[in-house]
Amino acid sequence: MKGLMTDTPLLITGLMTHGIRAFPDQEIVTNLVEGGRHRYTFADAGKRIAQAAHMLTKLGVREGDRVGVMGWNTHRQFELYYAISCIGAVCHTINPRLGPENAAYVMTHAGDSVVLFDNTFAPLIGALAPHLKTVQKYVAMTDKANAPSGVPADTYIYEELMAGQPETFDWPELDENTACGMCYTSGTTGQPKGVLYSHRAMVLHALVTSLPTSFGSDSTDCLLPVVPMFHVNAWGVPYSTFLMGTKLVLPGPGMDGKSIHDLIIEEDVTYSLGVPTVWLGLLQYVSEIKGNFGKMKYTLVGGAALSETLIRGFDAHGVGVRQGWGMTEMSPTGTVNNETPEEMAKPLEERIPIQLRQGKPVPFIDLRLVSEDGDLVDHDGVASGHLQVRGPWVLSDYYNFDGQTLTDDGWFDTGDVSVIHEDGRMQITDRSKDVIKSGGEWISTIDIENTALLHPDVVQAAVIGVEHPRWLERPLLIVQLAPGKATNPEDIRQFVCGKMEKISWPDAVEIVDEIPLGATGKVLKTALREKFKGYVLPELRDTSKKNTDMKTGTEGENAPRKKGFSFFGLGRKK
Ligand code: AMP
After folding, report:
1. Rounded mean pLDDT of the chain?
2. Boundary-marking domain end, from 167, 198, 229
3. Atom of ligand 1 at shortest distance to CA of 232?
4. According to the model, what pLDDT value does residue 49 have?
5. Which one of 117, 162, 194, 447 is least enclosed by Cβ atoms within 10 Å?
6. What is the C-alpha to C-alpha distance for residues 126 and 548, in angstroms, rounded to an integer?
């Protein structure tokens, strides 16, 4: 029997209407690209969203058109998130850090007809414009006084187009499955692939992430998304803000420790979201100035694994840390790690191993682990497997893509390798392409990296597998030291070895000036693999020693503990 309820579509327009109606006086604050700080209310934002919708319509944007936006987290991009989607067009957020080639590729592949950009990216847009065959109109997101040079001659100015437009709009009632947004994967392997979000998925994602058990907050909170709006909708914050009624603080181009810290203190930020690299920079800055975190209660860390160093760093300032895990393909939220009141009452040492887990799936998201043979793997916290997901905000297919996106039975293979603990918390051990297989054992690079980060002189760590004649692959630890430190690599190796099981001991440590980061602030292991291509481990450089070891089978001091040939799924050793 069918329920007798009104079939009202779940539209982003509904989120906007609610925010303006319920919290008209709540603030949105922006560090402007042009300098200075802008602030207005939800009610003002509503009027500007309507003006932006008129502006877009006059530029010729129609339902289904893709509109590219390359910008920092600002009130203007916030307006566009709603204006573009609510007229039925698709807000294609472009990651400027993809590099010129990939940026041109994604704009062309998406078929963007209009592109709006911040002044910071004017040189990039100017250089790319001759190659962007689908783009008919450009808009610089600024005012007349700050009009950029070096861009196509007929580039419009956002504030000029907005001026005088009506402050209300007759929003269309769209089908809830209408596409509303688009984001391309960061493209560390192969071409970036387009993920096309729908109104329904964004509304459900916003509702679920607004729960206190996800990363919800309320109208007494002040939220600072350091996660960029050009990558996976800044974890849905632009949508959930209107739902929760939180004050929203947008950092604009200032993503460095000082700019973020100034905002936290001056705007009374209580809650913030970001990737670990941003937080490491912030903690370093706060320790340099011997500062504090003002009213900040919580930070949500995701996008890459949370480390013990971060937990301890924030704890020292009385700031709680929650870990979340997700992907572009999942809008992005898959899991959030919330501690129970009993867990929170425990001493920090007991809480750390819990906090290092990526958490339990949020409502409507299902997880499963699958072995290389396609068998389901037990959720016992020991056996690892390929992590697969399904749910209402998980993609069904990439945009204009020929290959197969889901498994035959409808799950999305995340490319992550993880365990699921008996308490239901999932813990990532690796990306499947990063995992190190040593003598048949799987070694978690994340475990080694997090251990290295505990060393006081190490600010960034990455582990890659290098060839070994006997064990096939062994871990090479690459670290970046804090400014002014000249620590001996062997000291760092000894430090890590003292804290880990022998199989995970890095065979060598290399120090680099800077660990390369990718378009979304994650360590770029592809670049490190390229840099250390053909790397010969120190123990193998001495051929006489190597020959003795290989002939007699005796283990060199650094060789891993010998184990049975236990392939995937047979156990991750802690
Ligand atoms: P992206 O689609 O660029 O956001 O990247 C998604 C990938 O980032 C995931 O598949 C994971 O490999 C990684 N990731 C995201 N959050 C976490 C986390 N909390 N811990 C470890 N890896 C993460």
Report:
1. 91
2. 198
3. 4
4. 98
5. 162
6. 61
161: confidence class by pLDDT, cuts 50, 70, 90: very high
Q: Whose CA is nearest to atom 9 of ligand 1?
A: 327
Tell me the residue range of the domain where 166 lies: 11-28+42-198
- Which sequence positions are flagged as catalytic? 185, 329, 437, 442
Name every protein residue with a CB atom under 6 angstroms from any ligand 1 atom.
Answer: 185-186, 232, 302-305, 323, 325-328, 332, 358, 414-416, 428, 431, 520
Q: Domain boundary residue among 171, 198, 225? A: 198
> Hey, which of 184, 325, 432 would you mutate to test ligand 1's pocket, going by the most ligand atoms within 8 Å of its Cβ?
325
Nearest atom in ligand 1 to the alpha carbon of residue 358 is 19
Whole-Å CA distances, 422 to 14, 325, 377, 416, 429: 39, 18, 12, 19, 16
Whichever domain contains 163, its CATH number is: 3.40.50.12780
| 186 alpha carbon – ligand 1 mean position (Å) | 11
DSSP string of 436-471, one letter each residue? EEETTEEE-HHHHHHHHTTSTTEEEEEEEEEEETTT
- Strand-strand pairing, 436-438 and 441-443: antiparallel
User: What's the residue count for the chain?
Assistant: 574
Reduce the DSSP state of residue 308 to 3 states and report it: helix
In a domain, 483, yes or no: yes
Identify which of 522, 523, 525, 526 to mutate to test ligand 1's pocket (most ligand atoms within 8 A of the CB): 522
Q: What is the mean pLDDT of residues 539-556?
A: 50
* pLDDT over 80 at 136, yes or no: yes
